[in-house]
Design a protein that fits this description.
alpha/beta; Alpha/beta knot; Trp Operon Repressor, Chain A; 2 domains; five-stranded parallel beta sheet; 9 helices
């Protein structure tokens, strides 16, 4: 997959795109990253990329001209038509399902806005607007990094195990991930649960399921409304709810 990022701070992407799994995926030819400086396409003698908003208001708005010219130039750099994405708080929320959908694309073009907003004429060129959560950051660079990292995990060959992406929080059953342990079996008086040491995979799977339900119940009960639950799950959740009421 080729991923083009349009930003006024391309240097912010140097570290994350060349390190860890993303760096290895790039070195192995699975992912191809290109960060483009929007300022390079500004026709203003000062290379400005923003101006005051029509109608007044606080902050500055990113200009349409340099962004549109950047989009045109970058789009022409490859025969594959990119799926155009802009990172913005008003966009649809990034979910595992959306990330898996984007992972099937041959090419992504991601616009990382800055300042108070982006000229709406640019927004009309984009295929979709995406948000990473109900909060506002100083720019779209960090959200773009989050999107890239999230999407990349669903591209074959990026992760060490083909099962990893499906087995973690928010994937598969819709529950949070169960607790994980590694060696030694005891450290500073804290022991690994015995069930994980006995080699009985059926019992291990039961324990992990209950722990995932418990973590979700305690930290993100809203996820349980859409989670895939069976009768045993519901009975266990009722037990957890009853224990909570007794302890309140």
């Amino acid at each position: 997959m080729r991923i083009d990022i349009l930003t006024i701070f391309p240097e912010m992407f140097d570290g994350i795109l060349s390190a860890s799994m993303l760096g290895r995926a790039s070195a192995n030819g699975i992912l191809e990253f290109h960060a483009h400086n929007i300022r390079d396409y500004s026709l203003n003698k000062h290379h400005n990329t923003d101006d005051y908003p029509y109608g007044g208001g606080a902050g500055m708005v990113m200009l349409a001209q340099p962004i549109m010219d950047c989009i045109d130039a970058v789009t022409a750099m490859s025969e594959a038509k990119p799926r155009r994405i802009v990172m913005t708080p008003r966009g649809k929320t990034l979910t595992p399902e959306l990330a898996m959908e984007l992972a099937k694309e041959e090419r992504l073009l991601i616009l990382a806005g800055h300042y108070e907003g982006i000229d709406e004429r640019v927004m009309e060129l984009m295929d979709e607007e995406i948000s990473i959560g109900d909060y506002v950051l100083t720019g779209g660079e960090l959200p773009a990094m989050v999107l890239i990292d999230c999407v990349s995990r669903f591209i074959p060959g990026v992760l060490g195990s083909s099962e990893s992406a499906e087995d973690e929080s928010f994937s598969g059953s819709g529950l949070l991930e169960y607790p994980q342990y590694t060696r030694p079996a005891e450290y500073r008086g804290l022991a690994v649960p015995e069930v994980l040491l006995n080699g009985n995979h059926a019992e291990i799977n039961k324990w992990r399921r209950k722990q995932a339900l418990k973590k979700t119940f305690e930290n993100r009960p809203d996820l349980l409304e859409k989670a895939e639950l069976n009768d045993k799950d519901r009975a266990y959740l009722s037990e957890l709810a009853e224990n909570k009421r007794e302890n309140e």
